[in-house]
């Protein structure tokens, strides 16, 4: 199984701290301030009183549970994930592994319809359920991005959400199933010291914003700046929001993507449904003009989302991909090329 990088492994207990929570029923000026502060200080927060209907969530949860309980021979008909479809333990093309199985779907309705024929005996219904969930998740993601734009005083309040609303957006839906730990006694001990079975190894999400829902089983952990891991209490009535690499670049490092992982130490199965809001493949990512000044020069060179994805697939899960696009790193690479020439 994949292990977090050695610099972040700690033998002491994970730190139990409060998770930032934002109530979307609050007034808009207060909301934008709270969301910006949580994004700046933590890179993640919990959203309550959101607009996603409970039935939209429960229908997809039911479809996912029905799929993952199938015999392995039937599930494998929906794979292998390359990258879309069914995957088991393998995470990406570079040898990362974890104690999980998953479905990875593109947000495009045509792609979902094609994949549904190998996932469910009623592909039309499955497609409808997935599309409803993606639509609600996209809308909530865009509301959060618009509030961030307000908090950052961007002249174009849709500068961030417009990238996700694009019809050719490369947004994804990932449904993860973490089987229960068989050794309940040991799994509890490992959970207390922040080790044990790794379901999905340490990483940051490459997209703009991540919206995560999970059932009432623990496992999600966030990494603080000091390297200690925060266990995130599950809350099926809420969503967790995470800043992605692309948003870090767009905000010139003001918001930082959060490193996180999923442990699989529980005696109960854990299910998570994760929406990744992303731009179209040929969209350019660069620090927004309002966030660049002589005092805060641009940290990242312009790059396309497709270029970033290519770099992502060439690296291991825990690698810091965004470092490759820092202006200082780019200049060093260019200098080396000039020397060779």
Number of domains: 1
- What is the correct CATH architecture? Sandwich
Terminal residue distance? 42 Å
- State the low-pLDDT regions, or none: 1-14, 186-194, 332-341
Rg over alpha carbons: 20 Å
CATH topology annotation:
Jelly Rolls
Fraction in beta strands = 15-25%
- How much helix, percentage-wise, in residues? 25-40%
- Main β sheet profile: 8 strands, mixed
Kindly report the spatial arrangement of strands forming the biggest sheet: 1-2-10-7-12-5-4-3
The string of secondary-structure elements, in order, is EHEHHEEHHHEHEEEEEHEEEEHH
The CATH homologous superfamily is termed: B-lactam Antibiotic, Isopenicillin N Synthase, Chain
Average pLDDT:
89
Helix/strand/pairing class, anyone? Answer: alpha+beta
Q: How many individual helices?
A: 10
Features:
Jelly Rolls; dioxygenase; 14 strands; four-stranded antiparallel β-sheet; disordered N terminus; about 350 residues; about 20% strand
Helix-strand blueprint:
Layout lengths: L20 E3 L4 H14 L2 E5 L5 H15 L3 H4 L9 E7 L4 E11 L2 H11 L3 H29 L9 H5 L6 E7 L5 H9 L5 E6 L5 E6 L5 E4 L5 E3 L7 E5 L1 H6 L9 E4 L6 E8 L6 E2 L17 E2 H9 L13 H14 L1
Parallel strand pairs: 1-2
Antiparallel strand pairs: 2-10, 3-4, 4-5, 5-12, 6-11, 7-10, 7-12, 8-9, 8-11, 13-14
Task: Give an overview in words.
- The protein has helices at 28-41, 54-68, 72-75, 109-119, 123-151, 161-165, 184-192, 245-250, 305-313, 327-340, and strands at residues 21-23, 44-48, 85-91, 96-106, 172-178, 198-203, 209-214, 220-223, 229-231, 239-243, 260-263, 270-277, 284-285, 303-304.
- It is of the alpha+beta class and 341 residues long.
- The strands form 3 sheets. Strands 1-2-10-7-12-5-4-3 form an 8-stranded mixed beta sheet. A 4-stranded antiparallel beta sheet has the order 6-11-8-9, with no helix packed on it. A two-stranded antiparallel sheet has the order 13-14.
- A hairpin with a 4-residue loop joins strand 3 (85-91) and strand 4.
- Helix 1 crosses helix 5 (123-151).
- The radius of gyration is 20 Å and the shape is globular.
- The model is unreliable at 1-14, 186-194 and 332-341 (pLDDT under 50).
- Pfam families: 2OG-FeII_Oxy, DIOX_N.
- InterPro entries: DIOX_N, IPNS-like_FE2OG_OXY, IPNS-like_sf, Iron_ascorbate_oxido_reductase, Oxoglu/Fe-dep_dioxygenase_dom.
């Amino acid at each position: 199984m994949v292990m977090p990088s050695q610099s972040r492994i700690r033998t002491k207990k994970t730190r139990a701290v409060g998770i930032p929570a934002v109530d979307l029923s609050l007034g808009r000026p207060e909301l934008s301030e709270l969301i910006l502060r949580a994004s700046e200080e933590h890179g993640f927060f919990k959203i309550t009183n959101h607009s996603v209907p409970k039935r939209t969530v429960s229908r997809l949860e039911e479809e996912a549970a029905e799929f993952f309980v199938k015999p392995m021979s039937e599930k494998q008909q929906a794979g292998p994930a390359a990258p879309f479809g069914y995957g088991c333990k393998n995470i990406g093309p570079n040898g990362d592994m974890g104690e999980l199985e998953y479905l990875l779907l593109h947000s495009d309705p045509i792609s979902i319809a094609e994949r549904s024929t190998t996932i469910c005996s009623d592909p039309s219904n499955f497609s409808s359920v997935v599309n409803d969930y993606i639509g609600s998740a996209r809308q909530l993601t865009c509301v959060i991005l618009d509030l961030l734009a307000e908090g950052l005083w961007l002249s174009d309040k849709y500068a961030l959400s417009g990238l996700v609303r694009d019809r050719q957006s490369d947004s994804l839906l990932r449904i993860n199933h973490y089987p229960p730990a068989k050794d309940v006694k040991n799994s509890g001990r490992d959970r207390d010291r922040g080790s044990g079975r790794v379901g999905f190894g340490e990483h940051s999400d490459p997209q703009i914003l991540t919206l995560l829902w999970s059932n009432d089983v623990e496992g999600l952990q966030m990494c603080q700046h000091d390297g200690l891991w925060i266990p995130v209490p599950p809350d099926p009535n809420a969503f967790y929001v995470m800043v992605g690499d692309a948003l870090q670049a767009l905000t010139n490092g003001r918001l930082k993507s959060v490193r996180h992982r999923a442990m699989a130490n529980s005696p109960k199965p854990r299910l998570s449904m994760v929406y990744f809001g992303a731009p179209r493949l040929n969209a350019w990512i660069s620090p927004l003009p309002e966030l660049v000044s002589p005092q805060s020069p641009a940290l990242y060179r312009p790059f396309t989302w497709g270029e970033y994805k290519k770099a992502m697939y060439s690296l291991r899960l825990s690698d810091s991909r965004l470092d490759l696009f820092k202006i200082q790193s780019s200049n060093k690479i260019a200098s080396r090329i000039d020397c060779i020439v």
